[in-house]
Specification:
With about 850 residues, the protein is of the alpha+beta class. It contains 28 helices and 31 strands. Strands 13, 15, 16, 18, 21 and 23 form a six-stranded antiparallel β-sheet that branches.
Length: about 850
Amino acid sequence: MMTKKNKVTAWARDNRIYIGSFLIPLIILIGVCIAYGVQPFGDKSLVIIDGLHQYMPFFSEYYDKLRNMDSLFYSWNGGLGYNFLALWSYYLSSPLNLLIVFFPKTALNMAVSFLIVLKISLTGLTTASFLISRSQKHNWKVLIFSTAFALSNYMIGYSWNVMWLDSILMLPLVLMGFDRLMKKQDCRMYCWTLALAMIGNFYIAFMICIFLVLWFLFYDHTGIVSFIKNGILFGAGSILGAAMAAIGLIPAYLGIMNTASADMMELPEHSWYTNIWDILSTHLAVTKPITNDNFDGNANLYIGILSIVLLCLYVFGRRISLQSKIKRVLFLGIFIVSFNEQILNFIWHGFHDQYGIPNRFAFLYLFLIMLTGFEVLEKIKAMRWKNVLAALVAAGILGGLMILQSEKEIGLVTIGVSAGVFVLYGLILLCGVIRKLPLKRCVAFLIAAALIETAGCAFYGYSEIGQIEVPKFFSDTEAVNQVKEDIGDDLERTSLLSTKMLDEEIWHNLKCVTMFGSTANGSAVSMMNHLGFYTGANEYLYKGATPLTNLLLNVKYNIRREDDTNLNNFKLVKSYDNMDLLENPYNTYIGYGVEGDLSEWYYESAYPFRVQNDFVWQAYGVDEIFHDIPISDPETVDCEIERTNDGEYTFTNTSSQADNLVFTLPTVGGEDLYIHYDGSQVTNAIVKVNDEIRVSKKINSEIYHIGLIEPGDVVKVYLQLADDDLKQGVVRLSAADFDQAQFDSLYEIMSSTGVRVSSYTSSSIDGTVLMEEDGLVLFSIPYDEGWTVKVDGVETGITAVADGLLAVETEEGLHTLELDYVSPGFQSGLILTIGGLSLFLALCLATVWRRKQKG
C-alpha cells in the first residue's frame, strides 16, 4: 500500500512537466524581484506606467469595496462619481484579483506585484498544458516553449498591464477547448475557458476572438461539410461562452462606448508605419522591451532566438505538409502586415488607436511562433542535415536582414548575443541530426541553452524597464488617512493640489474630481474641458479650478503639500507633518436648484471664462463674475503669427525658444488674475509678474490663478513652441479678472437652493431641495443612464446639462429627492449569464448522461 509520501512523489513525477512549466518562470521572476529589490525583497514594485497612475488606485478602491462588502455599481471616489462596474469589468474582474484581500492595505503594491508574477507563471503552466494536449507526450521540450512565451519581451514589457495577463494565460486553454470542440464535438471546455478569457479582460478578449476566427479558418477541416459543421459548433460555442461572460462584457462595452474614444472609431486611411525590418528586428535577443511608445510602428517580438531557427526549419523541414507550411506562413504573414499597416492595426485594437502601447495583439503572433517551434522540434528525428543547414542559412539571412535593413540603431551586444546563441543552437541541431551526439542529449542541451537565454533576457528586460520606488509615490498614505479622519464622511469632495500619480486621490479613496482611465465618461471629459480643467482623451484632472467650479462641483477641501500654492484661497484648517488641510470658505452642495433655462447655456465656447459667465447668467441671472482682459498681439521670436480670434493666433515657427511668443497683459492693478491658454504645440509656459515667476510649466488647456495684481505690475506670458517636424499650429490665450463681490451675490442665491443630503451610500443619495420656482435640480454628478431619480417618491425623468451633468426637473417648493444607481447593462448581462450558465450546466449533465448510457 502506497504511503502518503509515496503518493505525493508519484503525483509529482507524473506531473513534472506541468510543475516545471509553472516553477521555472516563478523562480526566474522571484530572482528578478530579489535582484531589483521588488517587495518583499526591497521597496520597489513591478507596477509601472499606467499601472502606477491608474491600476493601483483602482485596486485600492476595489480593495475597500471587497473589505466593506460594498456595492460594485458606483463609486464617489473619483471623477465626480463613476460607474465602478464598468471600470471593474475593464480592469479588475479577474477572479485572481480577489487574492488582494489576503494582504493588508499597506501591502497592496506587493500584492499586485505578486499577481503579476503569479499570472506570468500560470501562463507557463497553461501553455505547457496546451502543448502536452497537442502532442499527447509529457516531454521536457515543452519547457523551452512554455517558458519562452511566459517570459517573452511582450510579457515583460507589458506586464504592468496586469489585467491583460488573465486573458493571455487563458489563451492556451481556450485553444485546448477548441481542439476538443473540433475533434470530439464537446464544447464544454471551449465555452468555460472562453468565458473566463472574456471576463479576465474585455480588450484582450476582443483580440483573442479575432484570432480564433483566423484559427478556425486555418484549421485542417476534412472538407466543405466538415467546415460547415465545425463552423456551426464554433459559432454556437463562442456565443454560449460570451453569454456566460455577459455580466462583465455588457457593462464593459457600454462603459467604453460612453467614453470620448468611442467617437474615434472611424477607419483610418491606409498607410505603413515604418520599415518592416524595424519591427522584425525586435525578435533579436537583448532587445529592450517596450513599456510604452508613442510611435505605433514598434513591437515586443522577442521570444528566443531558437524560435527563429525552428520557424525556418518548419519551412524547410521534412514530414510537414506543404499545405501546413503555406497556412502557417500566411497566418504569420497576416500578423506581420497588421503590425505595420494602419487599418488592420486599428481593427486589431478594437477600432481604436494604440495610445502609446503599440501592437498589443503581438502576444498572439508570439504564441503562433512558439507553437511552430514546438511542432517542428517534435519532428526533429525526421530531419536531415540538409534541412537543418537550409534552415540555418535562411535564419542567418533573416537575422542579417533584421540588422542591416532596419533603420533602428541595433547595439553590438544585441548583435553579438543573438549571433552567439544562433550559432550555439545551430551546432546543437546539426550534431543531433548527423548523430554526432545522441538526439536526447542534443535536446537536453537545447533545453538548457534556451532556458538560460530566456532567463538572461528576462533579467535584462526587467533591468531596462525599471521598477517604481514605492515610498516615493505612496509614503503619504498614512498622512492622508489622518486627514480623512478629520474631514469626516459627508458627501463633499476633497482634492489634492498636487499629485504624485494622476489618480492619487482615488488611491486614497477620496471623494474627488479627478479621473484618468479608459472608462472615463466622455461627456464629463468634454464638459470639464469647457469649464477650464485639464483634460485628455480619457481623463479630467483637478487642475484649473475657480471659485465657481469649486462651488458647483462641491469641492469642500484641498490637501496642500509643502511646495504647493494655495491657488483657491481656501482657509487653513489643520497642519500635519508634511501637508495642510484647507477648507473652502463657502458651503458646497452635491446639487443646486437652478432658476433659469440652461438649454441656452453656451457651454461649448473655447473660452472657459465665458462658459462660466454664461452659466451664472443663464442659471441665476447674475452678471459676469469674470471680466475679460483684452489680449494684445504678442512679441515674437523665430515665429510668424496671424490673429484669427480674440487672443487666438495661427503660427509657424523656425525654432524652439523660451520667448517664441511673449504676451503683455494690459493690467492696471487690483485685478484678481486668471489665465487660460490652448496650444498643443506649446512645450512650456512662463507667467511673470514683474520678475517673479508665478507659473513655469506646461499648463495647456487649464485655467491658472495668477493672483492679485498691484498697480504698476507688469504681467507677461512666455510661450515656447515645439521644435518638431510640424512647426505650426494654433494658440489661444485668454485672461480675466475675478469679481469677488459678484461671486458673493451668486453664492447667496446658490446656497439657498443647495441639495441637503440626509443619507447616502456608494450608489444612492437621499436628500431635500427647496426650489424658489420651477426649474432644474443640477447635480455635480456625471450624467449616466444608470441613475433613477424620484422627486417626492415619484420617479422623474433625468436630463443631461452641458451633455455632462445630471439634472432633474422640479417644481417650486420643498421636495424630497431619492437617487439610485444601477450600472447600465448589469441586468441584461445578469440575465444572459444566468441563461448561459444554465445552458452550459444542461450540456454538462447531458454529456454525463450520454456517457453513462454508453458505459
